[in-house]
Write a structure and sequence with these properties.
Blueprint lengths: L1 E10 L2 E11 L4 E5 L6 H9 L6 E6 L2 E4 L11 E5 L10 H6 L5 H10 L15 H14 L4 E5 L7 H18 L3 E4 L3 H7 L2 E6 L2 E6 L1 H6 L4 H6 L4 E8 L2 E4 L2 E7 L5 E7 L4 E5 L5 E8 L3 E7 L5 E7 L9 E6 L5 E5 L1
Parallel strand pairs: 3-8, 3-9, 6-7, 7-8, 13-20
Antiparallel strand pairs: 1-2, 1-4, 4-5, 9-10, 11-12, 11-14, 12-13, 14-20, 15-19, 16-17, 16-19, 17-18
Bound molecules: adenosine-5'-triphosphate (ATP).
């Protein structure tokens, strides 16, 4: 199991990764997300041994790497998958996957499993982006690394391909039984593909938990906002019940919150019905195809975002009736 404890990385006098702690499960897919510049790539480079660390340790099976006694990349048995595929352009698909491979039967296995059977003799230039990334993945997995680091493997691909390839990658990692840390910009990808999600902010891990917990019980308002549309409704928390302008709702106190709180509402926690006697006024509306996203002002200038079926219609300025419809407890943050 890969164990990272108290890992810090500095560039000059700037701390870019600050006291990172994590343990990667046996065949776990851990997604790392965070805003640009928060240190995601730096963490992968440090784990791979490509940059020096300032403090802490990284350990796996037989090796333990520290700032004073670093273990070189070639001794870490790490596989890497990059956004630009990093294939040898002069080699065929088969030669790319078999490069420095002792057991080519494994290459055959992964070429077949990732649907590359018919492209064995093709050069990378003749492949689509998705095929190139499959080749890169087949090559990495066929070398049987102890763990795999993926740095935004889908960011050079179009939206439709991203959606299917993310599942193929996850399934291949699971079939190989190799744990992975996967950096992405895409919150939806992190939530849907990860066994756990780590949310970084300014070099610090703000939360590391299951996708469900990170989304429904975020450790901070930053995590709440980063993982999706988030509205905050003032209320009063007593026990596990919050009294709000939209009536009572079940609440979960975050970080010991009690008394005056802001309740986290996701767009699907609310309903909206056009009504001249309604308790809110539409600020704006965005058509999304299957759905519409409304921003609605309720009492005291609070704005809430609610997603409805595309069939619901209300123009900016129209009155609407808003209600909390969720039955699961909502995260309550101290005000
Ligand atoms: N070689 C370097 N020298 C100095 N500073 C660097 C270097 N590489 C990265 N940084 C800085 O370290 C911080 C973290 O960078 P990093 O590339 O890890 O962020 P990231 O989360 O991967 O960003 P992005 O999502 O934009 O790829 C940034 O402020 C960046 O400017």
């Amino acid at each position: 199991m890969l164990n990272v404890s108290h890992l810090s990385v500095d560039y000059g006098s700037t701390r870019v990764v600050d006291d990172l702690n994590l343990a990667l499960g046996k065949d776990e897919v851990l997604m790392l997300v965070g805003p640009t510049g928060c240190g995601k790539t730096t963490i992968l480079q440090a784990l791979a041994g490509l940059i020096p660390v300032s403090a802490g340790e990284i350990a796996l099976g037989g090796w333990r790497s520290t700032a004073k006694q670093p273990v070189p990349p070639e001794k870490r048995n790490v596989g890497m998958v990059f956004q630009d595929f990093a294939l040898f352009p002069h080699l065929t698909v088969q030669e790319n996957v078999c490069f420095r491979l002792k057991d080519t039967a494994l290459a055959d296995h992964w070429l077949e499993l990732l649907g590359l059977e018919n492209f064995r003799q093709a050069k990378p230039a003749s492949l689509s982006g998705g095929q190139k990334q499959r080749v890169a993945l087949a090559r990495t997995i066929a070398h049987q690394p102890a763990f795999i680091l993926l740095d935004e493997p889908l960011s050079n691909l179009d939206a439709a391909l991203k959606d299917s390839l993310r599942w193929e990658i996850r399934e291949a990692l699971k079939a190989a039984g190799i744990p992975a840390i996967w950096v992405t910009h895409d919150q939806e990808e992190a939530l849907s593909v990860g066994d756990r999600v780590g949310v970084l902010n300014g070099g610090k891990l703000e939360q590391l938990d299951t996708p469900e917990t990170c989304f429904a019980e975020p450790a901070s308002r930053f995590v709440a906002r980063f993982l999706g549309e988030a509205s905050f409704l003032p209320g009063e928390l007593q026990g596990h019940q919050v009294t709000t302008a939209l009536g009572p709702a079940p609440g979960i106190p975050i970080d010991g919150a009690s008394g005056p709180v802001d309740l986290l509402l996701r767009p699907d926690d609310l309903s909206l019905i056009p009504s001249q006697m309604g308790n809110g006024v539409v600020d704006w509306v965005r058509y999304e195809g299957c759905s519409r996203l409304f921003a609605v002002q309720i009492a005291d200038g609070v704005q809430l975002k609610v997603r409805t079926s595309h069939e619901v219609q209300a123009e900016p300025g129209a009155r609407v009736q808003m209600a909390i419809t969720t039955t699961h407890p909502l995260a309550a943050f101290s005000r």
